[in-house]
Amino acid sequence: MSDSAIATEQVSPRGSRRTGTLYRGDPGMWSWVAHRITGVLTFFFLFAHVLDTALVRVSPNAYDEIIETYKTPVVNLLEVGLVGAVLYHALNGLRVLLVDFWKHGPRLQKPMLWTILGIWVVVMAPGAYFMMERTVREMFGGN
Amino acid sequence: MALALDKPRAPRRPAARRGNFELVSWVFMRVSGLALIVLVLGHLLIMNILDGGVHRINFAFVAGRWSSPFWQVWDLLMLWLAEIHGGNGLRTVINDYARKDSTRFWLKIMLYVSMVLILFLGTYVIFTFDATIPTTH
Q: Membrane-crossing residues (chain B) (predicted)?
């Protein structure tokens, strides 16, 4: 093994200014990973969603039947996941814009990450409530 | 003593880039992303959260919305921006992770075919929507 390879292995996998890696393992990296995952998932959903909406050109009942699956408990829960994914992608996209175009953006990228995660929780709490309220009531409320 | 280098510089600089495509794509992601924040979050708020959410959606609900040019334009704009924004994102993902040129090529062909299909189908449905279409059995 060469000297340089040994030196490389001694670098801590955790990112920090002290170890010389600013990015790897940093929250900024995970925000990028989450941005990719939520983006790809949303793109695949969009594919399915345009196909199911296209059933309005077949007949009213063909469309109503497919839309009924959106109202089942499992799919309803998946919709909360979709809204959560899209909301994260939107908020983090806004953060990326601020990092790119706002003069204080790069310096404040980490506080901005905690801010968007806070906004996400504040929006998702009532959002999930209104999305799931009827499904939960019908499952456990008995009427 | 100066270091003797065989070729201190490459004889010609390679072309920096072929056109401005990647720059245009970078700008497009930001501009379309900003528009999609309004279009998509508005769509999700109306369709999934307000006034009973998904439980009130059916054919009649869609017919009511698409009787208004405002929502037709909203949905058409959302369709095109989201499909191209998402397709361009997936193109980047394929470029990053495909290891073989042939894999990369065929994944992109699949992506572009799906994009054309979705854009054509979605546009067709918005422009030819017919609220009086008969029920089938």
A: 21-46, 105-127
Min CA distance, B49 vs chain A (Å)?
Answer: 5
B36: chain A residues, CB-CB within 8 Å: 90
Min distance B20 CA to chain A CA atoms (Å): 19
Q: Do A131 and B48 touch (CB under 8 A)?
A: yes
Average pLDDT of B120-136? 91
ipTM computed for the complex:
0.84
Contact indicator for B118, A69 with CB cutoff of 8 Å: no
How far is the C-alpha of B118 from the C-alpha of A106, rounded, in Å? Answer: 37
Provide the pLDDT confidence category of residue B40 given band limits of 50, 70 and 90: very high
- Partners of B79 on chain A (C-beta within 8 Å) are 50
For chain B, the structural domain boundaries read 28-128
CATH topology of domain B28-128: 3 helical TM bundles of succinate and fumarate reductases (1.20.1300)
The secondary structure of residue A16, as a DSSP letter, is: B
Note the pTM of the prediction, 2 decimals: 0.84
- A101 belongs to a structural domain: yes
Q: What is the pLDDT of residue A95?
A: 96
Please check whether residue A119 lies inside any domain of the structure: yes
Please answer whether residues B65 and B55 qualify as being in contact, where contact means their C-beta atoms are separated by less than 8 angstroms.
Answer: no
State which residue of chain A sits closest to B91, comparing Cα positions.
A40
